[in-house]
Amino acid sequence: MSRRNRVFPNIVKTPKVVKLGKLAKDNSAALVSEARKGSAEAAIELYRIAALAISWLEYVNQLRPDLLAEFAQTKLSWPVMRGPDKQSLAEVSRALKALKLGAKTGLNISPSGKKFSRELPANRVTVHLV
User: Fold this and answer.
1) Which of 31, 44, 78, 87 has the most CB atoms less than 10 A away?
2) How far is it, in rounded angstroms, from Cα 26 to Cα 99?
3) Is the dihedral of CA 3, 9, 14, 20 positive or negative?
């Protein structure tokens, strides 16, 4: 039995995808629990999972940008892999611009006009609500 996504009604949640997502989240939470107990192995594995997930997300976005664009426009942050070099920063900036990150949040995050600041207490709350 599938059900509609409340935020994006044209996306249908299928049992298979819901189950796969739950497994990934549960396993990640178990690794966090082990890392909190002092397991460096668990912390490193958590990094590996995050890096792999972000790489796959970037891959899917390159193949089918239409799958993520509408969702990204409702978010104020996006997972990326960034290296220490300037070229890496430029590539990440281009990718986020192409996604139109945050465009449908209702917040003025554009470079023109009054700048959005995460330092304001109200904005810190807003970031967690969006």
Assistant:
1) 31
2) 28
3) negative
